[in-house]
Specification:
single chain; 132 residues; mainly alpha; 5 helices; 71% helix; elongated
């Protein structure tokens, strides 16, 4: 492959994903490599899109949300619309994560309370029975 194109194996190695992952994104229409016989040839656009897809997944976006974001770049309203939509999605995602963090903190506090009660009850039982 030339410097401006990549094979599926090269992209998989560069992004540390499986060939199956890249084929899955291709099946979903997120990547559209050129075909040369049976070989897939990925161009810079595909490489950039794969990076955006993987970043979106790390940030917790669904594939449908990621598809909408990356597809907006090529359609109206273009990059401006893409960025406005992405900012709205970031705000939504941040709100969800902050709520999950509050839920986790609350659960940890409840666990600490239950643990303290269990330890106190166990100690009281052991003191009553004379065992240690």
């Amino acid at each position: 492959m030339s410097a401006e194109t990549w094979s599926i194996a090269e992209l998989a190695a560069e992004y540390d994903v499986t060939l199956r992952t890249i084929r899955f994104y291709e099946d979903r229409g997120l990547l559209t490599p050129e075909r040369r016989g049976t070989q897939r040839v990925y161009h810079p656009r595909d490489k950039v899109r794969l990076g955006l897809i993987l970043r979106g997944k790390r940030l917790g976006f669904s594939l449908d949300e990621i598809a909408k974001i990356v597809d907006m770049y090529d359609a109206e309203p273009g990059e401006e619309g893409q960025l406005a939509y992405l900012l709205a999605q970031i705000t939504h995602r941040r709100t969800e994560l902050e709520q999950r963090r509050r839920d986790i903190e609350e659960t940890l506090e409840e666990l600490a309370e239950v643990e303290a009660r269990c330890r106190a009850d166990l100690k009281a039982l052991m003191d009553q029975s004379g065992t240690r």
